[in-house]
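Two entries, shown back to back:
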Amino acid sequence: MSLVSNLLYMLVLLGVGIAGRSLGVLTPSRRELLNALAFYVALPALIFSSMYAQQLDEVLTPALLAGLWSVLVVMVAAGWIVHRSARSNRERSVAIVQSYHGNLGFFGLPIVAATFGDVTTAKASILLGMGALTQVPLTILILVVLNDREASFVDELQQFAKNPVILSLAAGLAVALTGVPVPDIATTGLDVLSQFALPIAVICVGGALSLESADVDLPTVGSVVALKVFLMPAVALAAFSLLSSSPSTVRAGVVMLAMPSAVSTYVYATEYGGDERLASVDVFATTVVSLATIFVLLRFVIGAG
């Protein structure tokens, strides 16, 4: 598929998810089942199949990790400053978190895999794993600190250790490092499963979007969109271009960090005292706007076929 076809396909899938929720077809229990299928089956298959045959020195580079962490530091600082005048700490905590915490798994990796080759997808898989290791604890910390909530970081870490994204990344890296052969029947099955990662994940995102705008601070929503969808990709492009001369590193870094605010940030906001309505509207707004910005990035900035 061409770039335009891929993005139109993704837009249709997003619409299917939104329509399914609106019509009552995609009920909460069915959304939960689809989420589980994407999170525990399709995404891990995509991550492992993109990693296991790679040369690690080509995909696991200092520039890749330095780029990720430098962009996150800049965006947390920018969010902290820009959102300092939010109406409450509940709003400020959510706005800061959603200015950097992107949808790397359900949007980022499938888009990279559908658009670029195996090396770029493998680098995006590493960014997904390391991004999760960085974003999730950072998000919980900000929400807890600003909302005076108590949280058991030991429990969170134990749950995180069971994350299928982390486990599949570790398995893929281990096989790539040791050179253990993977049976043909296994690789064929994984390739088939990985093809479902994009459609299932995007339908899940569409089914989870909600526009509950009552009493939401619209200027705050606008500032979150500006930071997450416009500033963060620009910072990522500058950081990865300075740190690496590899096109695959720049492409993986910029596309992954250009993703909209993660749906999971709504869950974390609910759990740790953030403003739930703002979180919901932010996810919706950044997702809709990012469809246009991702197209511009892929077509005119970093290049895609």
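entry 2 starts here
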Amino acid sequence: MVIEADGGSRGNPGPAGYGAVVRDPETGEVLAERSASIGTATNNVAEYRGLIAGLEAAAELGAVEVEARMDSKLVVEQMCGRWQIKHPGLRPLAAQAAGLVGRFAAVRFVWVPRERNRHADALANAAMDAAAAGAPAEAAATPPPAATVARATGTDPATTPASWEPRATEEGTRLILVRHGETERTVQKRYSGRGDVPLTERGRAQAAATAARVAELAPSVAAVVSSPLSRCVATAEAVAARIGDPPVRTDDDLIECDFGIWEGRTFAEVRQGWPGELDAWLASTRVAPPQGESFTTVAERTGRAVDRLRSAYPGETVVVVSHVSPIKLVLRDALAAGDAFLHRLYLDTAGVSVLDLYPDGGVAVRLVNDTAHLRNL
């Protein structure tokens, strides 16, 4: 596996933090992230702490051979034995790192330019920012997708039963996931989170077309569940009217991510005004926009909503009308994909996705971002 590690201090010594990323060497996919603020320390101490965290994470994932990449020349040279460790405060950390090195068959240390270590650097800065805001110092590791761990380590971790056999007796809960129709903010490509913006005229036409598509996909629907924001409720009501008018129930856990002070702004405006915060947010699902909500938090609540629907409607079909972030996160988890999936999947307004959830924990994704019903709009 590949480890990318970094640390920093605002003052040297000063408020410090570290970040570490473990990647699949073939695909570059993130297997784990570690970050923490460590109080007052020097840059070098923070850098060693980042290396230690990365080695620990790689060991937990079952890595046999590791390439550790850092932009700290000092740490790389000291770990390779080419430079003496003169500072007494670094010797215990170097010894701890060396002990972890002994757990692998081979470890290679590589110096890289800072621009090639941006992910770990962003995690370290996010940890320092979180500490300054009063958040807990330690950040838990990102759990790696089971399929990714199996590919990277050659193991077969225990997950839900895997089989190509058709399920003859088990009836799954089918979720038809619908993104709301167009709004002015989607047209202008602005962050649209908790702001309650209405559908445009075209958005209402999209909702009607989506309702017809849902009626084709599901002759019988047990429930229509929606985010409480009006753009979703209006889309859900259009669907309900087409399929027999079941009542539309709202669920707060299906609401869009809270983008905080980025709400209503374009990506370019955010890049200009908050470049460091944006890099940290793009680098990790645990990082929230200023005064906003992280994707990790969104995933937790959408997961709760999906679990409730699985339990409440066994063997039935439910239409779920939500926003781009919650639907992406549901599909990410259904496909056991990594966080890079969130940046690679595009979901159109009024697009339709379908997944089945089985009683044994199995999941089948049957459709992603179907937009054929919108071709004439």
